[in-house]
């Protein structure tokens, strides 16, 4: 029996040895990114869009107004839950506790009763507000959920009151994860993810995307590949749709950031502008591209005009044969000539620039 045990231990030792050799000597799979909400959580782009819409409102009455108050069963006046014209049927069309409108409705109640002097008074007003419109069962569900939600958010503020600004994308995402984990612990995973999932996923994606786009060490092609992988990991079937979501101008500006390093390494300004025009053609019509080109030309002309002005101004200021009064007069005449209708605006900018330089000089540390 002892021999068998020794043999078994020896076999285990050999297995462990081979495992360690394989671990260190052979290629390992790339470490998987730990997302807060990846594609497996079933939060789609459409869900995010719907969650960001304003609460739907009812149509105005024939008189053009909606009632401010209604009466509860005791005959007392209470604030109308539909004020100011909220469409409760549409708001809760997908259930009392849904991923799109419930959180917004809770925030609406927070704002509506923000002047309550105590938390108890606030809850009393919210309860009256809900029981005036919903059935007892529905009102109870909403009220209990609201109480848990609000207490959680208050505790969250206290828990993270010493939170400082994140210094990196990793820190920002980690903070976002801690906040959502806090909510999950207090509200339960299902409710926390249902109420906050769409918002947290949108923020997480924005952080991760901005980190890739803004990486000056990477070329555009590498960034594009990383963005495709990010889209697939987080959005799955919506990975292509997410690229079409921002408006054309924002997509174009982001394209310039993605290919910033590539553009900076093009030596010829003419070739660089040609590449920028190529990018523009991906997002805009020929007419818009033409107008953007004209704006670029105007900006270049204005910069050159200011460069020419600085050279002429320098010559006047360095002319020892002129009095200060004459110099100032010549400079003003030149400003009128070179800047035309914009001369006064230019002079205002010059005054602010000179004042700023003076303040820097006078407050410079010894």
First-last Cα distance: 85 Å
Numbering strands along the chain, what is their spatial order in the largest sheet? 1-2
Number of helices: 16
Total beta-strand segments: 2
Strand content: under 5%
Identify the overall geometry.
elongated
What is the typical, i.e. mean, pLDDT? 84
Give the ordered list of helices and strands: HHEEHHHHHHHHHHHHHH
Q: Residue share in helices?
A: 55-70%
Low-confidence stretches: 1-30, 61-82
Q: Give the helix/strand class.
A: mainly alpha
Main sheet makeup: 2 strands, antiparallel
Keywords:
single chain, 366 residues, mainly alpha, 16 helices, 2 strands
Blueprint of the fold:
Layout: H1 2-25, H2 45-51, E1 69-71, E2 77-79, H3 88-91, H4 102-112, H5 119-131, H6 136-159, H7 169-187, H8 189-213, H9 220-235, H10 241-244, H11 248-258, H12 260-264, H13 269-283, H14 286-317, H15 324-339, H16 343-362
Antiparallel strand pairs: 1-2
Helix pairs in contact: 5-6, 6-7, 7-8, 8-9, 11-13, 14-15, 15-16
């Amino acid at each position: 029996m002892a021999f068998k045990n020794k043999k078994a231990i020896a076999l285990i030792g050999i297995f462990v040895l081979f495992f360690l050799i394989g671990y260190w000597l052979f290629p390992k799979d790339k470490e998987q990114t730990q997302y807060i909400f990846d594609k497996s959580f079933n939060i789609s782009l459409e869900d995010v869009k719907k969650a960001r819409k304003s609460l739907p409102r009812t149509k105005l009455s024939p008189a053009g107004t909606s009632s401010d108050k209604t009466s509860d069963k005791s005959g007392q006046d209470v604030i109308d839950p539909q004020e100011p014209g909220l469409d409760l049927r549409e708001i809760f069309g997908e259930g009392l506790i849904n991923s799109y409108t419930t959180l917004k409705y809770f925030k609406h109640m927070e704002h509506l009763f923000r002047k309550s002097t105590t938390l108890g008074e606030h809850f009393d007003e919210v309860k009256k507000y809900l029981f005036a419109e919903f059935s007892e069962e529905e009102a109870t569900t909403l009220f209990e959920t609201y109480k848990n939600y609000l207490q959680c958010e208050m505790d969250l503020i206290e828990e993270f009151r010493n939170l400082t600004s994140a210094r990196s994308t990793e820190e920002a995402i980690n903070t976002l994860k801690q906040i959502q984990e806090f909510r999950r612990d207090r509200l339960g995973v299902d409710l926390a993810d249902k109420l906050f999932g769409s918002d947290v996923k949108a923020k997480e994606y924005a952080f991760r995307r901005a980190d890739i786009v803004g990486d000056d060490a990477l070329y555009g092609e590498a960034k594009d590949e990383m963005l495709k992988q990010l889209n697939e990991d987080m959005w799955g079937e919506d990975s292509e749709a997410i690229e079409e979501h921002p408006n054309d101008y924002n997509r174009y500006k982001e394209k310039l950031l993605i290919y910033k390093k590539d553009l900076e390494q093009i030596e010829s300004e003419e070739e660089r502008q040609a590449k920028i025009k190529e990018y523009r053609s991906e997002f805009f019509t020929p007419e818009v591209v033409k107008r953007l080109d004209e704006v670029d030309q105007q900006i270049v002309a204005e910069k050159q005009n200011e460069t020419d002005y600085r050279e002429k101004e320098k010559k006047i200021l360095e002319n020892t044969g002129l009095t200060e009064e004459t110099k100032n007069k010549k400079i003003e005449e030149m400003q009128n000539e070179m800047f035309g209708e914009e001369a006064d605006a230019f002079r205002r900018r010059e005054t602010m620039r000179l004042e700023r330089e003076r303040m820097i000089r006078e407050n410079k540390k010894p």
